[in-house]
Amino acid sequence: MKGLLATLVRLRAFGALRYHQYRLLSYIQIFSNMGTWMEEVTRGWLIYQLTDSVFQLGLVRGVQLIPLLLLSPLAGSAADRYSRKKLLLVAQTMGIVIFTAMALLIFTGLVRPWHVYVAAVLVGAAQAFQQPARASLVSDTVPLEYLTNAIGLNSLIFNMARVCGPALAGALIAALGTGGAYAIQAAFLLLATAWTVQLRPNQHLSGASHQPQRESFGQSILEGWKFSWRSKPVRAGLICTLIVSLLIAPFTTLLPVFARDIFSVGATGQGFMLTAMGIGALVSSGLIASVGHKMIRGKVMLESSMLYGFLLVIFAFSPWFPLSLAVMVIVGLLHVHANALVHTVVQSYSPAEFRGRTMAMFNMAQLLTTAGSMLLGLVAVWLGPRWAVAVMGVAGSIAIITMYVALPHARHIK
Questions:
Q1: Which of 235, 227, 228, 250 is CA-nearest to residue 403?
Q2: Total structural domains in the chain?
Q3: What CATH number did the domain enclosing 241 receive?
Q4: Residues 52-87, buried b or exposed e (16+ Cβ, 10 A)?
Q5: What distance in Å separates the CA atoms of residue 350 and residue 362, rounded to the nearest whole number?
Q6: Would 3 be classed as within a structural domain?
């Protein structure tokens, strides 16, 4: 094991792994992200089982928007003020309790749709604090010159979980039901928490002064918003994420419909679709970790986002499941080229003392996926699932083209 690690850290793509604290953070990312991807499949499948409603499939994802929108600004400011490790521990513990409770409700036959909605809201509250704290910890575990590489590796880890998590969730649902899947999710978060306890981040590695803040939370949040708007690269990245999150990325909400009603492949088939997307994402993450520092990141993130939306038309009207799987691989590659590069841009162009707040803004922009999921559900009721995915994908691509023309500086972000 040590020999393999020594070999990896010699490669440029894995340079950040030479730092022990970053390796611990990587273990946390693996287990936490596995739980996240499994929960997305499990929650969607459970509510569709209980209600047979396409609208509720979108709504159960949409309700997470409420705590995330309300708490993310506060969570970002907290991540710049207090111990990011402690915030992460509290959020993960909350997730363990929620997943365990859901497993017990399902095993005892007491689960009802409202339980799924309450769990979604509570998970959203936990994620609101977990995401900016965990993302900001990267700058506390590696020197500034390794930040881009570390963010690329985070994306690689995230998408390895994307490959394994959905497939595992689908297999567990088929074998043990949604209760078994929730129980395993709780176990993964428990493992992530065990690694978090061992974490000893060094806030001075990133070069931040981290002086005590005397301003109020409201002033702190406002300063974070002002910085995000004044910085042209950060602003462009956030707008790109907003468009993709609202109009393009929500298509995954309807995967249970495509899996069960269109292709008749069940929960396992849905897991395969998300896994195929994860394979493309994994390839994309490897490219970013290896050569991301050489990319004109603004140009790549905009062009990838544009192609992403148009490719959903092929997915929407695909008559064959194997073709859909192939499209999902390319979609996964484009999704990460858009998302991970924006993530890198936002962190790279933010001073360390602002990273908690800018990452909260990034997460808030991504939250529009939940609003987009609700919109997609309504459009699907009106036009059907195939046309809903196609129409929103094209709308997203047109919005990115508009941004490409209206904000020429965004194309030149390095």
A1: 235
A2: 1
A3: 1.20.1250.20
A4: eebebbbbbbbbbbebbbebbbbbbbbbbbeebbeb
A5: 12
A6: no
Q: Measured between alpha carbons, how far is residue 11 from residues 210, 257, 286 in Å?
A: 32, 42, 12
Tell me phi and psi for residue 192, to 5 degrees: -60, -40
- Residue 157 or residue 414, greater confidence: 157
CA-based torsion, 279, 188, 179, 375: positive or negative? negative
Structure tokens at 406: 């209206």
In 52-112, which ranges are continuous DSSP H helix? 54-62, 65-81, 84-107
Give me the domain span that covers residue 44. Answer: 15-199+226-412
d(CA 412, CA 414): 6
Q: Is residue 8 part of a domain?
A: no
Considering the domain boundaries, does residue 387 fall inside one?
A: yes
Q: Which 3 state secondary structure label does DSSP give 151?
A: helix
pLDDT digits (tens, 9 = 90+) for 373-385: 878 888 988 888 8
The residue with tokens 């990325």 is 249
Q: Work out the pLDDT band at 162, boundaries 50, 70, 90.
A: low
Tell me how far apart the alpha carbons of residues 414 and 312 are, in angstroms, rounded to a whole number: 28
The angle, 0 to 180 degrees and rounded to 10, between the axes of the packed helices 321-348 and 232-243 is 160
CA distance 22 to 189: 18
Q: Which two tokens stand for residue 357?
A: 């707040």
What angle do helix axes 297-317 and 385-406 make, rounded to 10 degrees?
160
Q: Of 224 and 96, which is predicted with more confidence?
A: 96
Question: 23-78 pLDDT, tens per residue?
Answer: 888 899 889 988 888 888 899 889 888 988 878 877 887 787 788 778 888 888 88
